[in-house]
Amino acid sequence: MHLQNGTLLQGGRYRIDRFISSGGFGCTYEAEHVMLQKRVAIKELFVRDFCNRDERTAHVTVGTESKRGLVDKLRGKFLDEARAICKLQHKGIVGVTDVFEENGTAYFVMDYIEGQSLAEMVGAHGPLPEARALRYIRQVADALAYVHEHNRLHLDIKPGNIMVNSHDEAVLIDFGTSKQYDEVDGENTSTLMGKTPGYAPPEQMGNDVVKFTPATDIYSLGATLYKVLTGITPLSATLLVSGEELAPLPTGTSKGVSDAIDAAMQVNKKKRPQSIADFLAILDGGGDAVETTVMDVPPEPKPQPKPKPKPKPQSEPKPKPVSPPAGQSDGPEPKSSVWVVAVGIVVIGLIVAFAVVRCNKPSSASGDVEAVEEVGDTVPYDTAVNVERLVKYNGVTFTYTGPVNHSDMPDGEGTGVYKDGTYKGMYVNGCREGKATYVTSGGEDRFVGTFHDDKYSEGTLTIEDGSYFQGTYKDNEPYTGTWYNSDGSVYCKLRNGNMQ
After folding, report:
1. DSSP collapsed to 3 states, 430-483
2. Positive or negative CA dihedral for 209, 211, 217, 220?
3. How many C-beta atoms lie closer than 10 Å to residue 434's C-beta?
4. pTM value?
5. What is the pLDDT of residue 371?
6. pLDDT (tens digit, 9 = 90+) per residue, 330-377?
7. What is the distance between the alpha carbons of residues 104 and 29, in angstroms, rounded to a whole number?
8. What is the C-alpha separation between 391 and 412, in angstroms, rounded?
9. Could you tell me the CA-to-CA distances from 334 to 299, 391, 489 in Å, in that order?
């Protein structure tokens, strides 16, 4: 529920021209300063879960008396923060030019930035080349260093909050969740804690940002760099803490960039760069970087040119159905190359250990699981650990590269190329089981998380337009969790397959 086009504010000084977006705590509009004939952006405090609006008068009221105290407190902090942000004067930070109360709520006026956000850019055109991505990240880093010099944290750095203006310059926006820290006593102001999954570090997800620590924003900056280089929304901090790992960066990513992302996204804040200068030093290859474990992998398939429609928060369609990771009976033609890695007695022991049949799947003797053929020359089992071969499992044929068990079935960490996509991760006796990355053939969808019983289990599914689902899955369909728009805002929540 938002202001209608043509609504006048401040006695006619501002006219609302267009509703831009909304979140749980506010609405943003394109407007005009009528006397100056200048376009501006106006942010309105509107706590969606607690407030109502009279469509005729535009007046905002609190839904229940028990929430009035909270909403009044948020409004006071909203105004205080707007006044404080107005003092930040930097070309890489959106300017705040006015703040006022009206309609029973609060507003502040910002410069209108002609352009698009990094989230929109990546959603429309895919991952950015490294040189271009770094140019924007360095501009944001310069603005963020200025913010930190004023004892303030932004606390919501993400691609959706970085605009690229008509001069191709990155501008940091949306300080609605920022915090000001007193040099002696610590935190002294805050509005709302930003917790965008994938970009918020563990301490932010746990509401533990009570001391001035630039490392919190640095985590988000590293996550943003990862997103614009890969097109993949990073796993949430809670998944990383539990042992999940990010999908690899593109082949050819420079070591400085890889090291900087790895260092910035350490779940332990004390192990991250402690200042923007430290982060940039690693980015430039001059810092003590945390050793990266990113593997060299082939380039991911490029997305098809026809984009999918973006989810629209105003309506409630069923979220996009997800095609199963496999289900075609015919796989790709076998490749002609063969590569072999020799192993010793220790590996033989491991292979024997993997021989236990799991996933409740029948062995090859039953006829349901079948090793079709090995591609290339025959290699004895006891030395053939990573041989490319054609495999048939549960009626699905695919090309597999990786370790096998005594039944000559995929067993361990390997790569399977299916008719509808490529799987990189763990297998158990031919079954996809454990940590993995799955990318559809055209690159439209990408899943990072865990598989169980050959299907999506839990993790993040990012679709072609940049929107993504985080949660659990049933029969390869999103089941319980949250759908997010490409800018990180919540589209809808699912519980047991139903929209909430």
Report:
1. CEEEEEEEEEECCCCCEEEEEEECCEEEEEEEECCCCCEEEEEEECCEEEEEEE
2. negative
3. 15
4. 0.57
5. 41
6. 333 333 333 333 334 333 343 333 333 334 333 333 334 344 433 333
7. 18
8. 15
9. 20, 10, 43
